[in-house]
């Protein structure tokens, strides 16, 4: 299998990576959450506070605080039911229901799972799985594992200075059953949106996370009792009450040697699907991303972005945005035909762009310098936004301005490029695109760079969605769009950039659905 060809088709010609006769077997769909069996259980509080504005720092969080934190990061937050006209009987209706969480997920399938290494007084120290279905922690492995995890991260973050570490994994089958090989793109974006939510919630809980995209995969999977074929780690995030300092530690470590330090564990979980199909292309690509030795870890330099001969439109200062974070989370959803053509002024656009990019700064294992420029950026096609000429722009956060790429109304082109016309772009004045490196940093990060770039795009996406919600708007993340057409609009190919995800943003009518909060 030619991995480079597969990635090219996955990104630019995704109809070629899914069989033309692919049919989704909804009757044999997996659960959107993992349910372990026969593990020690530790219940979390159900009395979730409806505000988290007044959190005060404490030496070590208690179990209540961790429970509230996990619910706001990835807990079941809402139940919804939507009615559709029946395909067989015009006078009857069919209903679809599901559980929602605060981060978005393609198709509501949530392929990511969350594990937590915790050192709390009220719990035995060890590795836990966050059981979303029952809002509880299940113990996988007991014991202090600071040294093991620190080694698996290349000794660049000391776990002895942290009260724990979140590990984000992906269960491949959970969305492969619907999207086939296209699920690989969604898995990175979904994991990124979850990490983006975790970073935002951490600010309100006064936690300091540091995101590690590079780690010894086999060692982390071994720690969790995973075989790496059906589920594998995507990110490790040490969390402390103080800033996690990056350390340049000498010496090398290999996964083969490290796994010898702790015994195997065997677990069982419920799989609702009777038939789990193989996904050989994704397995082969995933295998190519694995890191066996810390010597393979890399850091990326910041790129000075120069924009010459571009008309620059200075944006006004943003307005004060609501600080009611919980209200913002609860009101976030993805409108479809609910968008209306309500005007958006320059101050609202400026607030959306500046808040999204400023709050995106985060500690990670890739940056060589502090406050390094983001590797993903925001472009947008705007129509009748204040006095800004209709056209395609790039947002420059350094100068808080728009750089004009092309003038014109691109709504027709963008609408024609959608594979599923579930959003009327003529009702949306702002259509944003998150853009990244065309080579996905393959020279520096090899094939792991593709999933890392999608995770960073997902993190920025979540910031955009939360900011839009705080402004009384909402956005709808879309992957079914013409990437080649968008790259042409923004003249990205010659800049060695490409579009990753499309996000129409605007005001909207109330959605016609039955929805209720789940917060104890």
Describe this structure in words.
The chain has two domains: 29-75 and 113-296, NADH Oxidase (3-Layer(aba) Sandwich), CATH 3.40.109; 312-515, NADH Oxidase, CATH 3.40.109.10. The protein contains 14 helices and 19 strands. The protein has helices spanning 3-12, 63-74, 146-152, 173-179, 183-205, 217-224, 255-258, 280-289, 325-331, 346-358, 411-416, 442-445, 448-470, 483-489, and strands spanning 35-37, 41-43, 78-85, 93-100, 112-118, 126-131, 136-142, 164-171, 208-209, 231-240, 268-270, 312-314, 377-382, 391-396, 401-407, 430-437, 474-475, 497-506, 514-517. Helix 9 (325-331) crosses helix 13. The N and C termini lie far apart (50 Å). The mean pLDDT is 92. Residues 383-506 form the Nitroreductase domain.
SSE topology:
Elements: H1 3-12, E1 35-37, E2 41-43, H2 63-74, E3 78-85, E4 93-100, E5 112-118, E6 126-131, E7 136-142, H3 146-152, E8 164-171, H4 173-179, H5 183-205, E9 208-209, H6 217-224, E10 231-240, H7 255-258, E11 268-270, H8 280-289, E12 312-314, H9 325-331, H10 346-358, E13 377-382, E14 391-396, E15 401-407, H11 411-416, E16 430-437, H12 442-445, H13 448-470, E17 474-475, H14 483-489, E18 497-506, E19 514-517
Antiparallel strand pairs: 1-11, 2-7, 3-4, 3-19, 5-6, 5-8, 6-7, 8-10, 9-10, 12-15, 13-14, 13-16, 14-15, 16-18, 17-18
């Amino acid at each position: 299998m030619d991995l480079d060809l597969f990635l090219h088709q996955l990104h630019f010609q995704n109809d070629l990576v899914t069989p033309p006769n692919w049919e989704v077997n909804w009757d044999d769909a997996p659960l959107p959450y993992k349910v372990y069996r026969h593990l020690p259980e530790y219940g979390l509080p159900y009395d979730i506070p409806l505000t988290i504005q007044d959190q005060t720092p404490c030496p070590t969080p208690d179990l209540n605080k961790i429970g509230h934190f996990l619910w706001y990061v990835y807990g079941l937050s809402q139940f919804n039911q939507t009615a559709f006209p029946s395909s067989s009987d015009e006078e009857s209706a069919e209903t679809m229901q599901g559980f929602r969480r605060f981060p978005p997920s393609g198709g509501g399938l949530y392929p990511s799972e969350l594990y937590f290494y915790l050192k709390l007084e009220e719990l035995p120290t060890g590795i836990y799985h966050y059981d979303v279905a029952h809002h509880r922690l299940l113990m996988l492995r007991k014991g202090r594992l600071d040294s093991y995890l620190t080694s698996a991260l290349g000794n660049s973050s000391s776990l002895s200075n942290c009260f724990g570490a979140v590990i984000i994994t992906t269960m491949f089958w959970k969305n492969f059953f619907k999207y086939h090989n296209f699920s690989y793109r969604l898995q990175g974006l979904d994991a990124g949106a979850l990490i983006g939510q975790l970073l935002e919630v951490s600010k309100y809980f006064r936690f300091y996370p540091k995101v590690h995209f590079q780690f010894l995969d086999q060692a982390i999977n071994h720690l969790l009792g995973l075989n790496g074929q059906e589920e594998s780690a995507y990110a490790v995030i040490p969390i402390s009450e103080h800033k996690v300092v990056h350390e340049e530690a000498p010496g090398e470590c290999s996964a083969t040697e490290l796994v010898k330090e702790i015994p195997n564990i065997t677990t069982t979980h419920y799989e609702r699907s009777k038939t789990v199909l193989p996904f050989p292309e994704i397995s082969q690509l995933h295998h190519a991303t694995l890191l066996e030795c810390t010597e393979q870890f890399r850091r990326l330099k910041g790129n000075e972005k120069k924009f010459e001969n571009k008309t620059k439109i200075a944006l006004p200062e943003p307005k004060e945005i609501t600080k009611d974070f919980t209200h913002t989370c609860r009101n976030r959803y993805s409108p479809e035909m609910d968008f209306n053509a309500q005007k958006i002024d320059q101050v609202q656009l400026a607030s959306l762009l500046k808040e999204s990019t400023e709050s995106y700064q985060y500690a990670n294992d890739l940056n060589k310098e502090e406050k390094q420029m983001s590797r993903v950026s925001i472009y947008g096609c705007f129509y009748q936004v204040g006095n800004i000429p209709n056209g395609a722009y790039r947002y420059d956060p350094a100068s808080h301005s728009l750089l004009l790429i092309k003038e014109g109304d691109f709504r027709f082109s963008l609408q024609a490029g959608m594979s599923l016309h579930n959003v009327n772009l003529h009702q949306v004045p702002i259509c944003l695109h998150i853009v990244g490196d065309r080579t996905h940093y393959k020279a520096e990060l090899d094939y792991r760079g593709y999933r890392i770039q999608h995770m960073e795009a997902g993190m920025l996406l979540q910031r955009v969605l939360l900011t839009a919600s705080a402004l009384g708007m909402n956005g709808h993340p879309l992957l079914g769009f013409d990437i080649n057409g968008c790259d042409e609009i923004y003249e990205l190919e010659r800049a060695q950039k490409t579009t990753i995800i499309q996000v129409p943003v605007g005001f909207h009518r109330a959605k016609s659905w039955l929805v209720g909060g789940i917060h104890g």
